[in-house]
Queue: 4 jobs
Job 1
Amino acid sequence: MGAYWGLTTLDLLGKLDALDSNEVIQWIMKCQHESGGFAGNIGHDPHLLYTLSAVQVLALFDKLNVLDADKVANYISGLQNEDGSFSGDEWGEVDSRFSYLAICCLSILHRLDKMNVEKAVNYIASCKNVDGGFGCTPGGESHAGQIFCCVGALAITGSLHHVDKDLLGWWLCERQVKSGGLNGRPEKLPDVCYSWWVLSSLIMIDRVHWINKDKLVKFILNCQDTENGGISDRPEDAVDVFHTYFGVAGLSLLEYPGLKAIDPAHALPVDVVNRIFFQK
Amino acid sequence: MREESMISKGNSLNLLDEFELILESDPLIDEVGFIHPSQFVTLNKEATSSLKHEDANFWSRDHKLAISTDVLLPLYKAAKDAFMHAISQYKRHGNLSDASGYASNLESEAMKHSKALLLLSCDFGTAWNFRKLIVSKKQKIMLFLDELLLSALVLSNSPKSEKAWCHRRWVIKMIAGKCSTLQDIAGKESELVEKIAERSKMNYRAWNHRCWLVSYMTTEQVLHELKKSRNWAGLHVADNSCFHYRTRLMLRIMEEHCHKLEDGTSDENNEIYQIWQEELDWNEALIKRYVGREALWLHRRFLSLSWIRHFTTTLGDTSNYRACKSSINGDISIFHG
């Protein structure tokens, strides 16, 4: 996953060639398990999380052809449960995030037909709360990260009619605090990573004009360590690759100059997404 | 250079041996923490029983274990290498017949290293998975319960560890059909979440686990939880998760109530009406006491919405509810005031 964050950030900055793509691809392919799923590193166990990251990184490098797409798709569709939900791996933990991972990954691989989309969508809809947001499982508390996953999955499958856009938009825009930053849940401190999760959700449901974009841009820029370049969760904190990705991706969604545009549902640069879906 | 790195590798292995020995010698350790070595002295002053173990790297007493921050990195590397080596050996030879004792030896080595590793790196999924594999092969209740102890120990130091919470859910699902004490477990789990939530505020993972437990609870337990969590919520008005937990409990009560209405096993709304009325009054008192708290207002949004949906739309279809409904219709003015 770290590789995905770092490499997508580089691509948004137009600097993907800073790394040796062959080396990265060789390493990724060594993380593939015989089941078709990918692990976070060599010798570890496979999980949907790392499978999507691996596929996304290969998409960035335009190297999806090194994959046996059917094998990966079989691994993913094998994790779908009777009620439409997805387990993250063979051990059976269920979470609406895993539904997003499966849907996004199969979409990139042009293999959505390998799963039961209708059931998957109904399961996600069952995770909706009275506040318009979504939780991990039915009845789970709304959380901006979960909301991104559920809205993203519904967007990819053309099922956004399950979202109450005004109600959810209201909950999401209430995430903006005085400093301009966004939090992920009520009463929490703002954090750069929510610039991605809240903002991309607002864009997908067409309510992004309900927050103050200029103040958010300023907040993200204030979180950059101008000496070593990275971005942190909040101003003055230590930087890391995770928050750097979410800061840059957030700025990209805010159309900050000098950055490539990013697709809010697939979390990949728009030119990469276009290459996947419009050039065959 | 080479000699130096050999020596440091040797030291790390001694460090891991020492750590694993401490863990084995006291299986009742219930709390672990990473602290600066200078704090060991302070710990000694506070402790009540005799010292179990102390040197520059570890401190253990009263079933509490402290690990010096100075040794964390070499200790983690040694534990990771030992575990990864052990599971690759296990995968290669573990399927041999147990008669030789070789396989079971490999297995216990890997289990020992996985425990050390998880206490140092709480979200090491491959190590949690290995434990699931071994425990599910043996199918002994005691071993499943040991996994609850280990994950609780990990949570004592890493209360937000998603993998540790997930491991508990897996264990509970595994013993759900076999163990008559499931309701006890659900009750104890709920207490564990409350204990952890006290030290780790607004912990989404912990509260999510508590919400998940609700489906394993009896109706009495749900009502008891609603009563019990009220005091906690009143003292933590900024913690939205606890209010969401109450939402979950109330919706479960509402769900069961609606089933009863449909079956015709109950024809009155009084109990549910009273629960909602009490929650609204209590919420109003909190809102007046703590001005401008988002979680309180969001909870009120839920209460009023569900009130309007249930008492003003589902009622009135049957004559039985009319008396109840008319009194409620009068009360709806509380939202306009």
Note: The two ends of chain A are 27 Å apart (CA to CA).
Job 2
Amino acid sequence: MAMTDTDTATPQMEISDEVAIEIRNMNKWYGTFHVLRDIDLTVHRGERIVICGPSGSGKSTLIRCINALEEHQRGSIVVDGTPLSSDLKNIDKIRSEVGMCFQHFNLFPHLTILENCTLAPIWVRKIPKREAEKTAMYFLEKVKIPDQANKYPGQLSGGQQQRVAIARSLCMRPRIMLFDEPTSALDPEMIKEVLDTMIQLAEEGMTMLCVTHEMGFARQVANRVIFMDDGQIVEQNEPEAFFKSPRNERTRLFLSQILGH
Amino acid sequence: MSDTHAESVAFVRESVIPPAPPPAKEAGAIRWMRENLFATWFNAILTLVALYLIWVLLSGVVPWIVNGTWQGSSLAECREILQGNGGGCFAVLRERWPQLLFGFQYPDYLRWRPVLAFFLLFVAVPPALFVMFLPRWTLIVTAIYPFLAYWLIWGGTILTPLFAALGVVAGYLAFSFTERRGFVLGLAAGVVTALAVWWIGGLLAGEFSRFLRLEAVVSRAMGGFMLNLVLGIVCVSLSLPIGILLALGRQSSLPVVKGFCVVFIEFVRGVPLITLLFVANVVLAFFLPPDANFDLILRVIIMITLFASAYIAEVIRGGLAALPKGQYEAADSLGLDYAQAMRLIILPQALKISIPGIVNVAVGLFKDTTLVSVISMFDLVGMIRGPILASTAWAGIYWELWAAACLMFFVVCYGISQYSQWLERQLQTDHR
């Protein structure tokens, strides 16, 4: 798979042959509603994939299936060699290797920023408290809010909260990051600070799956853009080709709607 | 150039407006009264009517208290001293105070033991109530207290409370060892272990009943406000954890657990407490073997606890339902297991939301402990209605006794309410 973004590509942004996520023929229903239909997707380590599509197309559901927040009914998902089954041990293993950021941040409002970041390392990874705090401060510095460490989430702006959420996921040292519309709930002036953090993460070689409508981000960072509609993958391509010459009619319509103003 | 933008469409700010202090509140008692009491003529009339009513109330109550007497040993003597000046006969409180507190059967030379237990309460409770200000190890005092208090109030060999405590510790250990295989399994293992230790401990305590022995007092001898306090404190502190388990069980995906919790909660909530107490008093004894020594107070505690825990379960269920789904998902996505997610993320928030409801149930429960007077236990209400009003010396005296009973309950309930409001402020983490 070739690199396409010539302007921002840095040497670290390399994609290995190693498979990080393998989804085969995956189907999911909500009751009788067929949300995901025959999804096939292979993600290599180091890939940065942007998933877009109209609302209700199943893009969020797709990435939520990867860490078992949603259950799929048919087909297989293998994350880092661990098959996703109803076996709780496998689910826990996958969840501890896959970080996730949500549209509404989902920080724990009763804990300080620092406690938000150290909770999972201490209780899941069994890391001593002091060491976990050191790691947390390292990542909080990385998302540029170390000075807020002792505040509560309710005292931070939306952009800051989302960056804390990213830091919280990173504290578990995940090998894959999932982003579920991380900027959709933010004021325009805060979107950039979150995107900058995500770009930085991509440059360090993190495997990323982002559901987002930030097409600028897709152009700059992604090595692959996936368009979904009606629970199916309709089109996928390298970003330049995807935006310049979409081949499917529905993709063209979607792009004209979100880029045409 | 000054920044005025009233005249033109185009406007560019050139100077920054510095922040100014807010306008000072205009003070003065007269101004306050005019604004709050006599703002309109209707408002003024209401104020005058209210003042008149307050006057009527105080002119009745104050002389009753001020002219009252604390002397005399019977109502007749009291009336003689008062000579019809409208004062209250508070002598009954002075003379019967120990009975109001301890009932009429608790041996008077042993009263220091419940008194000591009562004062130790003020040492044992703060670590639990003010856990954020005191070091965590002080919670040990709180943990020891129930067993110590039992020993002080009921007496007997110290082995009984010792083995009771041992059973709790063993049950907890069994729970924490098996918990990782599943929460329900861990809970079952804990309960079974605790029951086993209690059974063996019961045998041993019976065998060595002279070891470190305080003079025993039977449950029938308990009475007065002490009984209300014991029932209230024990039942509230037991029904909270049971209520949490029931609320979680009602959300469980295991049909058996969920079904049991739903049936239990709906049944208990649908039954008046007083009928449960009659069951505890009469019906249970009917089913037990004739020589079974199943303490009456224990039976009452079980019934009140079950009753209160069903209510608390529903209050906490409301708190759980109020949490956004994202909190569960965030906990899941970080790899926390069920028990960790509940203990660290979900319950702290759900309980915080539920504080007003829980306190509501707790205060109601504490006052409902007076219902035991109906099954002929002599709590504070039972003492007043029974032995005191039936005595020849004090027959026909009502106001003073009931006012005192109200005051005693009010002090405790108001304290609980104030604490809960303080706690809510403490736990507020937004916009601080």
Note: Residues 184 and 401 of chain B are 49 Å apart (CA to CA).
Job 3
Amino acid sequence: MSDESTTYIAPEPKFGYPAGPKLDQQIKARHRRGQFWYVLLGASLIVSILALIALLYTIVNDAFGLAAVEYKNDPTRLVVEQQEKVMLADRDTVSSEDDRELAAGIMNDPYAIGFFGYAYYQQSSDNLTLLAVDGITPDAGNVEDGTYPLARPLFLYSDARVLENNQAANVFINYYLTHVNEEISDVGYFPLSAGRISQAQQTWKQANALDLPAGQWAAINPDGVGGSLSIAGSSTVYPLTQRMLERIKADGFVGDTSDESVGSTAGYRAFCVDGAADIAAGSRPMNQNEFASCRKIGRLPLEFAVGTDALAIVVSAQNDFLTAVTADELRLIFTTAQKWSDVNPNWPDQPIKRFIPGTDSGTLDFFVETVFPIALDELPQPTLVSILADNVSPGLGRRMESEQRFFADQLVFFSQEQWAEACDGATPYAGCTLPPRAKDSVLQLLNENVTEPNIVAVWKLVPSLLNRAAIEQEALEKYPAASLQFTSWVSTAFLRSPQSSTPELAGVRTAVLGSLWVVAFTALVSFPLGVGAAIYLEEYATDNRLNRLIQTNISNLAGVPSIIYGMLGLAVFVRALEVITSGTAFGAVAAGATANGRTILSASLTLALLILPIIIISGQEALRSVPNSLRQGGMALGATQWQTIWSHVLPSALPGILTGTILSISRALGETAPLVVVGASTFITTDPTGPFAKFTTLPVQIYQWTSRPQPEFQNLAAAAIVVLLILLLSLNATAVLLRNRYARRAA
Amino acid sequence: MTLNSYAQNKHLAVEADKMSVYYGGFRAVKEVSLQIPQKAITALIGPSGCGKSTVLRSFNRMNDLVPTARVEGAIHYHGNNIYAPNVDPVEIRRRIGMVFQKPNPFSKSIYENVAWGARINGYKGNMDELVEASLRQAALWDEVKDKLAESGFSLSGGQQQRLCIARTIAVKPEIILMDEPTSALDPVATLKIEDLIQELKENYTIIIVTHNMQQAARASDFTAFFNMDADRAGYLVEFNETNEIFTNPKHELTEQYITGRFG
Amino acid sequence: MTRESFARELKILDTKILRLGSAVEEGIMKSAVALKTRDLRTSREMIDLDEWVNQQRIEIMMGCFTLIATQQPTGPDMRSLAATLEIAGELERIHDYVKGIGKISLQLDTAVLPTAIVSLIPDMAGIAADMLRQAVEAFTANDATAARRIPLQDDAVDRLYSQISYDLALIVTAGQATYEQANLMQWAVHNLERAADRVINICEWVVYKAVGKYVEMDSGYVAETAVIP
């Protein structure tokens, strides 16, 4: 330490204290000691924060993530099929896979309406009127950018190994990607942007292992190329492919070609399942199931976008009342409406003649998927019921209906006579008196009996986010039939559903309700008892040996392991006081109640005992912090001791008392061991109905789920922990709010 | 000590007769006999631990709140011993109010601070008038009349102490005990309280404990000087008119104390 | 207004000074007139009044002491109490002069004195009494300016004093009075002159009370500050 760098305020040594450089050293040494502790304290804080983060990480990691779900019946398909069925069922509806037939049918009838690929509209545009949908008439701009609601991409699919082995197919796709934009407008579709074409070309280059820079294209001259080429698929893509075939043949291609217009779905089936087609043409992207089927036969589909189609909604040129429709009107026109005037009173009172493509056509699927809602839970209850009716056996359906009927005024599975007989009989069905099922209930039945989701694999949140591509690959290989979904295990369904042995269907409603019941009764019992005891001990008890003994024991009780309270609860409340805790003494054994003592009441009393010492101690603490001057001030005015306590001491101590109480109730909410001993039910699906009901609580539920071997239950446990944490946090937030409110009032 | 000439002309408000106070086995105050004149200010002074506060608290049985406290001898109030077994301390405290060292308003509104004591004591008259009159007497009305609904804690220290005086006045006591009422206040607030006490002696008997000798000199009519003897029990050394005590003390200890030569 | 009781006590002391002051002022005039008119009864009354004056002074003194002991006066309050103490003393001593004149009057008994001289004595007493009245008024009004102006009037007293002394010498030489009588007269006049001087002391304390500075107001001061408006 040099003299230049240090300024000494008092340089001379005085009175035996260090001075000069020594003073400097001494002060620095003292600071160092302080810093040591500062760092130590900071480190411990960091460690605890890290521990918290690790805890949250584990929970969140398990509560969310990708899941591979196999459906017995794909819900999207169910919806689409249902809608298509409704549309096709009408006797005024003409359905054909041949769009030309449809166009011809519409032309001659002023009350006809239909839809098909834009190309067919162009072929007969003189005799047809193109309708604007939601105010947008299709043209190149709004189709390419997707603002026209019924625009869709057109694809070719093939496989790298197919292209390698089948030169004709390889050259044809190369030729297609080279010249499609020159022909497409003429065929009646909309050309792709240069970017999307070059993306498709990139795919082809990769399949041929050509290492060309982006933007550079290797067009192959088809002159003299031969072989056999089989194309199957969408009737929409068909005219375009036909045009390309004509052109490639004109350019010297000599191969045998077959091109079948069978619809996208059939085309994909031919490519992925049978392996008969070399190229599949589609008017919708291949879905995951189809993709998975391809993998099964060793094909990895390559996607080549070749154009965009807009679905044309057309009426006859003779039609004089329709130039535009909305999506809502479309839904009505193609489903329930019988006459034009049903849709819009300004339209003529004439039956609607519908001309629609058949079910093999991608066009119909596309129309349904675009115009109608496709999620099951977006459908109205009657539609759900009819899906259910189509997909379950009559026996199962009758059982469902007997438990609770679907409609108030109509029977689905029973005949009127059967129903009336059963309801008038000795053992009427529950459904005879219950109100009809709500939509949720029907959805649940669909879930359990029709779609039957089966989670075949789960991934944690972090890999799901960071490593999605690898997971998709893995899922395709291992679980080809499953669809990969991002799953939040915490969901409204999870909160609403009762316990179930199927992880996909299990929920926490029973447990949450049980927890709330138990905690409410616990608070009801322990708060007045605890606060009363605290007031007695703090305000009235004299300092004698007995009171000291009581005080010491209360402090000790606060440290007794909770399981011991469980033993106590079992012995006293469940066994000895069974008459009371089971409710038999009050004659209150209603539905859902049990005749033994393992009830909400027993659990609440046990937990109340468990947290009583904590409430007493925190209450005493709060009362002790009330300044004595307040008591004296009250007494000096001639108030009695109780008046003083009631008017001044308690209001001042209330924030502290409430905080202590709510924190201890939080503890009760999180307790497992004593409840397991007292006898929380391990598996219960009925909601608790009162103090004498069987019950389970969230922590018990979590404990049971974590001990199950299936990995999905770990996710459920994590989700239940999230629910428990939210409950706890809201309870603590209430405590903070209450405390602030009372503290502000006291200030 | 016998009744002096000055006090003979005045009526007595309360009288301690050979009163001793014990805390457990410890005798804190030894055989104090003190005659407090009516409608005058009597100051109790003395060194720390001389038992002056204990004596003050004995007058309205506030010592009962200390579990181990015990009083021997008697305090005569209207001819009755307030320590007689059939006397309810609640009644004594309603007639002999008390103001404390630190202002201790209730955590209620200003209005409620004053009204509460009256209400619990069964006051049947017009509460608004009582509150206003009490606050006026405590020289606080003008400062708080527009914010009666605000918390008592929103006031300054001196205002809080006057609020405590107002709530004491509201129950119409005969005697007001003040235990170092200005020790937590600044000089200006202190002087205001002293003036207020001067006004109050028109209607109330006031007994004030103060560690501030000058305050006793300034603000009181009579002064009692207490001291602590060898076994740390407090006893009364001298009781006289304040002017006499401060210009011509009779007892050597008093003289030493007031001239600052004590101890 | 804080410390109201203290302010009240100070006011009472002021009133006492005022009462004592006017009694002494009246004494100066009465004793001089009694000397002139040979009113022995009044002269005797003036002598007897001294006991009351002394008592008043002690009362004022004790009042000051009590306030000092109990009220811890500071600043203007302290100056006021100091001035009150001193002024009460000055007034008591002025009355001693009055008492002296009364005694001289009794000693002269029935002697007949030359009219020219005896009529000048009340004139002198008049000026001194007037100065005292003004001084006491300045005290109660706490008026330093007025107090500063009062000593200027002392010259007239001094002039009359010189003239009367000179006249007395002439009278003795002319045999119009005995040497003893002239000597007594000389004492009486001297008493009046001293009384006026003590009024100046009072003024000094009034100034001190009002502005907190003690200024000697002897003849030199008078010359220097004669221009005070």
Note: Residues 4-37 of chain C form the longest helix (34 residues).
Job 4
Amino acid sequence: MTRFAAAFPRGRPALVCFLTAGDGDTAANLDALVAGGADVIELGMPFTDPMADGPAIQAANIRSLGAGTSTAEVFAIAAAFRVRHPEVPLVLMGYANPMVRRGAEWFADQCAGAGVDGVICVDIPPEEDDALGPQLRAKGIAPIRLATPTTDAGRLPQVLEGSAGFLYYVSVAGITGKQQAATAHIAEAVARLKAATDLPVAVGFGVRTPEQAAEIAKHADGVVVGSALVELVGEHGQDAPRHLRELTENLANAVSTPARR
Amino acid sequence: MPDERGHFGDYGGRYVAETLMPLILELEREYRKAQADSRFQAQFDDLLEHYVGRPSPLYFAERLTEALGGAQVWFKRDELNHTGAHKINNCIGQILLAMRMGKTRIIAETGAGQHGVATATVCARFGLPCVIYMGATDVARQQPNVFRMKLLGAEVIPVTSGAATLKDAMNEGLRDWVANVHDTFYIIGTAAGPHPYPELVRDFQSVIGKEARAQMLSRTGRLPDLLVAAIGGGSNALGLFHPFLDDADVAMLGVEAAGYGLDSQHAASLLGGAPGVLHGNKTYLLQDEDGQITEGHSISAGLDYPGIGPEHAWLKDIGRVEYTAVTDDEALEAFQLLCRTEGIIPALEPSHAIAAVAKRAKEMDRDQIILANLCGRGDKDIFTVADKLGVEI
């Protein structure tokens, strides 16, 4: 059983938590997420030009790069996390250029060495899969694809082809951390996706509160929270773990308790 | 031509978020239809003739040629276009495409403001709302163009993220686009970005080279020996070069901005960068060993971008076009040379091309011909130049 399969058990939605690597004391912050009940960790690779991200994650990227975070340090953070938490799935999320800079094979090797389970690359759509996908698959790393409100029925098979781990549904056409989509829309979209794939479907973009998370958890296999957590790191610095753990606990309770419709 | 997925050799492609992919594919389908539609071409040609003022003249720079004492120097006078640069050719083409697609809102990014002004101009002409993203740093140093855009009815949004310059404006444009794909068309200002932008921008700008080729043949009965153009993103250069690519005897020189020097701060992506992925395409980028994008520098805000159109990356690798770079100081000297010898105040962008022309002309015979693209006029740059020359206006 892969770590993903264990993290997305049938009947209990998973909580997926995002933080930007190198922003604050990342090891302590990630531990707080796990302690709070996060089922999957998304570790953001900082990039100078995060064009799919809203102000909160943009600021986290700038803080991280300003502190001198290198690609080597991102992998060191990942590898150390894997040692501390052997069972928790770890996903790297970021943009193509830092991932392919030394070659896709190098990147896939590093992922495998650090115990990374999956990779989300925002700006490599299925059309450009050759740039990274084959190398990841060869090392057993799951390329996790994004589906969006603009992904129509004709296109969906192409998105699903070669994707693994889970499917990430971007609930709004827009950037991270902004407005949330209507629940009715999410329910319909998730149903459409689940009819087309056996992969778990996690929903993200604009999910900030336990109430929102609970609502989405009625329909999806997973709920992704990013900007709200990243903001706590920006706001509280060294004191962030306490706040991260508190929010994560509330989110985890909200996600796992509601009865499925 | 790129392959069916928009690759020029290893470069180009469609490296965009999934939200944008369906729109990018629709744009390509619509562009193919427009290419086959004689009414689209006729409308484009009519606007270029009567609104932009094309064809632009082909001009023999007699006194500059004498001053240099080598090859004959000819200029394609795209600085005489409406709005003062080549940028408008592309904006006309793209807004016609936007209207074909039923889009009702236009966005664009701008660095120095020339593409922003050209975009605001066509939006005013066709009555579409226009939002221009511009780095806050550029807003501060390009106030006249900011005011022009506002006069034309555009909303100018200063971008404070990142380094607050052109690449950050492009990031913000992409963020707007991804949130407004249903009604918004993004008019990209250079031959870069996701396929089909590099191809369609090149095609719209190719009017420069098509005119120049016919004009040169009719005036001199021959083709030029060397084409020269400045390169930021590379659209004016591709516009000039592309119709000559099959003319094996015509050499081509693209001129990047060497800023303070290639061993210091510069904006020469081809000569001082490495291949990578940014803003929808794979191309040469200014970046560090981890793939983080580094800031370019040039005296010319229009050349100050850390990437370059993917077709240039390919033309460099196959050796069809030679690329060189010119420093701020050399460009400033060439700027003054053209003012004094020809009575033409060039923009700082083509001043880089003129500096390269000056070097090459001296090494060539008097019966040889250099054709350079004078892609913009210098009114916008007089404050920068005065500042560099230590003159208070």
Note: Residues 240-256 of chain A form the longest helix (17 residues).
